[in-house]
Amino acid sequence: MKIRAGPVRQDQYAPHRARLAVRAWLGSAHSALYDTELVASELVTNAVRHSLEGAGRDWARLLLAEAPSRVRLVVTDPGNPTSPG
């Protein structure tokens, strides 16, 4: 299993940078690339919109684990859990 991780600054360009990271990690020919890029973009967008920014806490973290038949993507941010709504 390959595991890759890295920070993503939480700003208006974060979703784009997350997609670029996923593409670099998986490679452009990976069968799950499109879906994984989409999920990364959505998760990072949520992190930017709903976590606490500023005060040195404005970085999200991507973790991608790649196995032969699956890809797992985790996005964490410095914010506290909140209720939807």
Automatic annotation (TrEMBL):
Domain named Histidine kinase/HSP90-like ATPase is located at 16-82
- Coiled-coil segments: none
Taxonomic superkingdom: Bacteria
What protein am I looking at? Answer: Anti-sigma regulatory factor (Ser/Thr protein kinase)
